[in-house]
Design goal:
The chain has 13 helices and 19 strands. The protein is an alpha+beta fold. The N terminus is likely disordered. It comes from Streptomyces kurssanovii.
Length: 499
């Protein structure tokens, strides 16, 4: 392992070790001198703490998926095509209906048997949630059971329904999870690991599911700690306090041994969302002026140390077919930004974003804008961002997180009724393009419709895509089989263990 390069790094490592002390006890399984290979616990350090008590109806669902504790009817392969999971097979049973056969021999972690009625309950609860899981934005569905099959019927034709049902936010949980006002996933999943406890926003504990339908997990369990500070996460791996570390900041990657890090091109775009409903950027000409002022290359070379790609659009190199894009087809003459004040918001959870915001501040100042920054932890800034309280917001956004298809992300972020519409955009041409993209049958025609919708969004300057990220995951050298998943759905699987 490399030695720290400077005294400040040593100081950070010491502080981080202090931070992690007590989180992963040295005598715990998985530590030096622990159980034999394949029977140790895996110590995982993750970036964002739970925001909704690990409810599967929130973004916390992706943690449940990455720990292999909650599962869905279908999963996605590398190409984004649906594959069997809790459903053994499915078929289109009507213009608006799909019928899924529920897998036999699956038990929930509380010992109850998975049935079609359980699937109906989970999907119905998700469809009635407020707010809905974003994968169901613009989708109305009803679910019925008949024997070991479940039929899902949508209000309008939805060719993407099987892919939608792969979203971790549509996980199937036992009846016990739905008692009360919130959905409680503890001991209610079907996956390789049983969620035993959640300790606020600091930690979670999972044990091996000895009766997992997909085979016996190779690890004894998972001990999770949530550490928003990226430097502390990297230091935990360097000091041997963690086995797997999520989202190592690029600034820390060079301080780790090459065999400890994996760089994966991500369907994730770092975008500056501009508020089109109020404030300075309500004026299209000033949005155009901001776009003209922003240069992404210094961000890639400086902030990301070359571990990213300059964006040509909303969709990046993780989707090879996106190279066929037509690009912007309408341009607006840039207005005069002199005397115009804007506030840019972003969050600290992703270590690069405050640096990106600072660089944008200087670039926009050079163009004549007066720029203020507001930076907090994500949990403390999301509601204000969604309410449109900033003139602009810097966000690292996964573009195919939910369905393996970017149409859902684009609808969520840019449709008038989208649940994650940071730009407060309401544009008829965008809505029409998104409607076509979401209703076109999978295949080449759908891809072309998605690219047309991307062009419609870019024409509004509601969002300025800057760069496409690559995830840097840290693994100790004795970790075997951790998932390197561009969609950020998998991390510890049935085949992951510590030697």
């Amino acid at each position: 392992m490399r030695c720290p390069k400077s005294l400040p790094v040593v100081s950070v490592a010491v502080a981080s070790a202090s931070l992690m002390t007590g989180c992963f006890a040295s005598g715990a399984p998985g530590a030096s001198g622990g159980p034999a290979s394949g029977d140790k616990r895996i110590r995982v350090v993750m970036m964002q703490p739970p925001r909704s008590g690990l409810s599967p109806l929130s973004d916390d669902a992706f943690k449940l998926s990455r720990w292999s504790t909650a599962e869905t009817l279908v999963t996605l392969d590398a190409n984004g095509d649906p594959r069997p999971a809790l459903a053994e097979k499915w078929e289109r049973s009507g213009d608006r209906s799909w019928t899924f056969t529920v897998r036999d021999g699956v038990n929930f972690h509380d010992g109850t048997e998975l049935t079609a009625a359980d699937v109906v309950r989970s999907l119905t609860e998700a469809s009635r949630a407020a707010p809905k899981p974003r994968i169901l934005d613009g989708v109305e569905l009803s679910v019925t059971a008949d024997g070991d099959t479940v039929t899902v019927t949508t209000a309008t034709e939805d060719p993407l329904l099987p892919q939608r049902l792969s979203s971790p936010q549509l996980a199937v949980l036992a009846a016990k999870a739905y008692r009360g006002r919130t959905v409680d996933p503890i001991g209610a999943g079907t996956g390789a690991f049983v969620l035993k406890g959640v300790h606020g926003t600091s930690a979670a504990t999972l044990d091996r599911n000895e009766n997992y339908w997909g085979g016996t997990p190779k690890a004894a369990g998972i001990d999770v700690r949530f550490v928003p500070d990226g430097t502390a996460r990297a230091a935990a791996l360097r000091s041997g306090e963690a086995d797997i570390v999520e989202s190592v900041p690029v600034s820390q990657a060079s301080l780790l041994d090459e065999d400890q890090i994996t760089e994966v091109p991500m369907p994730r775009t770092n975008t500056l969302y501009l508020n089109t409903a109020r404030g300075t950027f309500k004026d299209p000409s000033l949005r155009a002026a901001a776009r003209a002022a922003i240069d992404a290359e210094p961000l890639v070379d400086g902030v990301y140390e070359g571990r990213a790609d300059v964006a040509e659009g909303l969709l990046g190199p993780a989707l090879p077919w996106a190279k066929e894009r037509a690009g912007r087809t309408r341009d607006v003459k840039g207005g005069n930004p002199r005397g115009k004040t804007v506030t840019i918001g972003t969050f600290t959870d992703r270590a690069e974003l405050p640096e990106v915001a600072a660089a944008l501040q200087q670039q926009l100042r050079n163009a004549g804008f007066t720029v203020k920054l507001e930076i907090r932890e994500y949990a403390n800034i999301e509601s204000d961002a969604l309410a449109g309280k900033f003139d602009a917001f810097v966000l690292s956004r996964a573009t195919v997180l939910d369905s393996g298809d970017p149409a859902a992300y684009m609808y969520s972020d840019f449709a008038s009724e989208g649940s994650f519409n940071l730009s407060q955009l309401s544009d008829e041409s965008v809505d029409k393009a998104l409607e076509k993209a979401t209703t076109t049958t999978s295949g080449e025609a759908r891809r072309q419709a998605i690219l047309a919708a991307e062009t419609a969004v870019l024409n509004t300057d509601a969002a300025i895509p800057m760069l496409h990220e690559r995830v840097v995951q840290g693994d100790a050298t004795d970790v075997v089989g951790s998932a390197k998943d561009p969609r950020e759905r998998l991390l510890v699987t049935v085949d992951t263990y510590v030697k």
